[in-house]
Design a protein that fits this description.
CATH superfamily: NADP-dependent oxidoreductase domain
Strand order of the largest sheet: 3-4-5-6-7-8-9-10
Helix content: 40-55%
CATH class: Alpha Beta
Number of domains: 1
Order of helices and strands: EEEHEHEHEHEHEHEHHHHEHHH
Length: about 325
């Protein structure tokens, strides 16, 4: 496994982490397509692969994700870096302290390694929220602070408000198909030593090659995404062919190629969602090798040429709702 420093915190995290949005979340098919057995096996596979970074949030499964992690990490706490997120409606002083305490209790930890604001909330000034976060660090309840889904302007305000502490990270959607952060946010984060934690690094598994017009997802999250319509799954076929070709050249999978593209960037780590051990094993295979410059150019060109139809996903969504 490869490791990178989390911001300037001195904490080393695996470049491929364990994303746990799916743990306990009905919108992903919890209780229908998978359950506790599968996710606990996924955690064990992560340990075997030396993955030490686990990301969750109080909202995932309404706390169920944190509870499952708390059960899984017993006996392994010192080996792991645990990150969770506070919901945007819990950013007042009293609520934020309670959220931190409740998350720590569900996780079974004395201190949260990385505590992140899940989304900015314009009702609550970020300067006030960061003062509370600073207090949580001073009290020893939190080791380091991050944000999630913050644009460049909001991230800069957060950095200033958190001072003299350093902002460790910004968790944002980033993958071959979603590259908006490359314009301003990513270069600034690199120059400021802020770690970018890439969520949905496989575009909700769209980059795995698993789905075709004939094989569609049944989870509500994926089906609600118009990219999974028959029309768009046909359009992405050219991109999937490039991924498959490069994967074959390295004896890797398309998912491993897509993840390697991300983690090759100096301050980026990826947290693919993993609800089964085979998903974790696949993700772990993204490390300890590198794409060539020409392969990176091929991937980025293929991704830039994709044009999705944003209005063609309604039938998928209706079908997924009927399966809930």
């Amino acid at each position: 496994m490869e490791f990178k420093e989390l911001g300037k915190s001195g904490i080393k995290i695996s470049v491929v982490g364990l994303g746990t949005w799916q743990w306990g979340s009905r919108e992903w098919g919890w209780g229908r397509n998978y359950g506790k057995k599968e996710v606990l096996e996924a955690f064990q596979k992560a340990l075997e692969a030396d993955i030490n970074f686990i990301d969750t949030a109080e909202i995932y499964g309404r706390g169920k994700s944190e509870q499952l992690i708390g059960e899984a990490i017993k006996g392994h706490r010192d080996e792991l870096v645990i990150a969770t997120k506070v919901s945007p409606w819990n950013l007042t002083s009293g609520r934020l302290f309670r959220s931190a305490d409740r998350s720590a209790h569900r996780l079974g930890v004395d201190v949260i390694d990385l505590y992140q604001i899940h989304l900015p909330n314009p009702i609550f000034p970020i300067r006030n929220t960061m003062k509370i976060m600073r207090k949580l660090v001073q009290l020893g309840k939190v080791r380091t602070v991050g944000v999630s889904n913050f644009n460049l302007a909001k991230m800069k305000v957060s950095q200033e408000a958190l001072s003299p502490l350093e902002l460790a990270s910004n968790q944002v959607q980033y993958n071959l198909l979603d590259r908006n952060i490359e314009d301003e946010l990513l270069p600034y984060a690199q120059s400021s030593n802020v770690t970018i934690i890439a969520y949905s690094p496989l575009a909700h598994s769209l980059l795995t090659g698993r789905y075709t017009p004939e094989t569609k997802p049944t989870s509500l999250v994926q089906a609600a995404n118009p990219r999974f319509s028959s029309r768009n799954l046909t359009r992405i076929n050219s991109m999937q062919q490039v991924l498959a070709s490069i994967a074959k050249a390295h004896n890797k999978t398309p998912a491993q190629v897509a993840l390697n593209w991300l983690i090759s960037k100096p301050n980026v780590v990826a947290i693919p969602g993993s609800k089964r051990p085979e998903h974790v094993a696949d993700s772990a295979g993204a490390v300890d090798w590198r794409l060539t410059e020409s392969e990176i150019e091929r991937l980025e060109l293929a991704a830039s040429e994709l044009k999705f139809d944003r209005l063609s996903g309604i039938p998928n969504l209706l079908r997924a709702i009927l399966h809930l």
